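Field guide to reading this record: the first block holds the primary sequence, the second block holds the structure written as discrete tokens, and the final block holds curator observations. Each block starts with its own label. This record concerns CO(2)-response secreted protease, catalogued under organism Gossypium anomalum.

BLOCK 1 — SEQUENCE
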Amino acid sequence: MKPLVTFIFGLTSFFIFVSLFTETVAEKDGVYIVYMGAAPKTKGSLRHDHAQLLSSLLKRNKNALVRSYKNGFSGFAARLSAEEAHSIAQRAGVVSVFPDPVLELHTTRSWDFLNYQTSVVIDSNPNPNSNSNSTSNDSGAIIGILDTGIWPESESFNDKAMGPIPSRWNGTCAKAQDFNTSNCNKKIIGARSYEDDETSVIKYHSPRDMVGHGTHVASTAAGSEVQGVSYYGLAEGTAKGGSPGSRIAMYRVCSPNNGCRGSSILAAFDDAIADGVDVLSLSLGAPSFFKPEITDDPIALGAFHAVQHGITVVCSAGNDGPDPGTVVNAAPWIVTVAASTIDRAFESDVVLGDNTVIKGEGINFAKIRKSSVYPIVYGKSAKKKDADVNDSRNCNTNSLDQELVKGKIVVCENLDKTYANEHMDEVKQLGGIGVVLIDYDSKGMASSFGTFPMTVISSEDGAKVLSYINSTKNPVATILRTTSPTKYTPAPIIAYFSSRGPSTIPKNILKPDIAAPGVNILAAWMGNDTAEAPEGKDPPLYNLISGTSMACPHVSGIAATVKSKNPTWSPSAIRSAIMTTANQINNLKAPITTEKGVAATPYDFGAGEVSPTGPLQPGLVYETTAIDYLNFLCYHGYNITTIKTITNTIPDGFTCPKESSIDLISNINYPSIAITNFNEKAGRKVNRTLTNVAGDGNSVYAVTIDSPPNLDVKVVPNKLQFTKNGDKSSYEVSFSAANPLKEDVFGSIAWSNGKYKVRSPFAVSSKRDN
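BLOCK 2 — STRUCTURE
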């Protein structure tokens, strides 16, 4: 049985991925992406223009053009030498040229759990100016998903009670050997696939999902309601997506064993803009060790043009936590999503010979006795004669003595942070009958061990187990079969693997934006995955996996619902509504914490845990305008000539401010505030503008400031008045301190009129740029 992958680093193992990635971004011959900014308003034949540009520069006759981008933006992917790529980069109208990167892939209970904090009464039509006539069964919103494809036969994609496909849909349902137009319906209204490059290890030209990831993501975002779903009896309930009335358009940009190529991702963005999607969901991105400039980042570029066309773009934050500064997909026009736990656990406890019960986590369908009759041994004590002691503690390959392991439960430590299943495989082949793995970091995330008795415990509980083993001559224990209790406390907890802020590219934007369930999420799976099935069981129709990949579609579904209820709202208004209505309190009515039990900061979860209903009626929103994004590009260091190439919607007379510095990024109208290079002597001031979307008449909002003791925060004015829907009102925030800040500090600013609370987190750092 293939181990259940509990969070997704990529389509292949991490080390193979790193090798592929490093080779791709190196300066060498291969596929390059040539980005030429906005598509001209009179497009003509851009593909012909791109081919002509190539033929005028290349000395060889071989057809170099791989893809042409012509709908939302202009550019192409081509097979070039490093010298040819450098030559094209010098041409007028070319913004950037960069190697085609290979990016990585980063339910029933999760949606029920998200309502734990809901206290808002939802109006049937919260926006009085909305023209929407949508219903819960037919929202009309279209979610485009860039992923590994889709398994259309899953019951989560049935189109019962769904109305006609929206007339504005311009997409297509691709034909392939294993996929045709009959696989699309009123739920899956579009499916495209992007052919692998000629260097691909395995070529696969179909929208059908052969990995499972895309199917899981799609059903989490917009799956239809399906009752009686479970993972072999665990986590039983009703599966549904965040926006079950929304339509799905799948863009397969990731291939089995070949990764997610930037050229395919840009092609999918280009098609999705023309197809007419409302929301784009991307559970993938670059690894944290590679953070390209915005004009070298296919996701940032594609998202920029999508947002210009009114499409909300939601991306996963990455799985490289809990180290700081690991967040990816951090451009200010992207909604960046961190991962958190829900209130459902997968418990597989250890019972020691003295009747002590140790809480464990893991998924196993073991059939050993419940009574403690099985000998238990510490890996270190079962060391092979010439093995390294740390290898034996870790139960590494060739480190254990088979005679000391056979017929016993073995206690292993996860010192080198390997996948839990690797410890199981070693003990199992030596004749061991079970594994207790000591691994604090995996708290809250259950791996699947099939029918083998295995569980994971914390380091504190590990000390208790080792103490028991050392205290008796013949220690015994057993491992209980998994149960899945709900109402687990505390929840949510920020997942340890979830990538953290602060954002480094760009600076002065607080990322991630929001957190959502991403641990042990049950959702649809491809129906032929026999390798994923425990021994003696059929392939799972629904699977449990974890990652920010799973958190992202929760927010995408909410964004689609908000769009369907408020069809005139911009992507920035939707993002603001999601952020300013977030929760910071767990189900114990205490602050949400990290995996270490300390209070989470905005670097961990942005504005907080997403609310599924609050964004429908936030009261006020922060509109991040086109001018804000233009100023951002100026502050980030791009000149006006480059900016005019990137976008053709620049207002007449616009030019970059004379005082353009990266510190001024803090001043764009974002729903949160991030300040770096803070100087206590000079202080810092930022401005924000709020827009009334509640439709209330004469309404007054008063400010509440939550600030740390070593930072002085003032807001002027302290009250904002709105007389009608669409009214705008601005305020200024002043930050100062009597003494230098020794560490980053956090707080929030909230506006309330007694009915709505509009909260914005802030982070202030005195760290200087290198």
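BLOCK 3 — OBSERVATIONS
The first strand starts at residue 30 and ends at 35.
Residues 410 and 435 are 5 Å apart (CA to CA).
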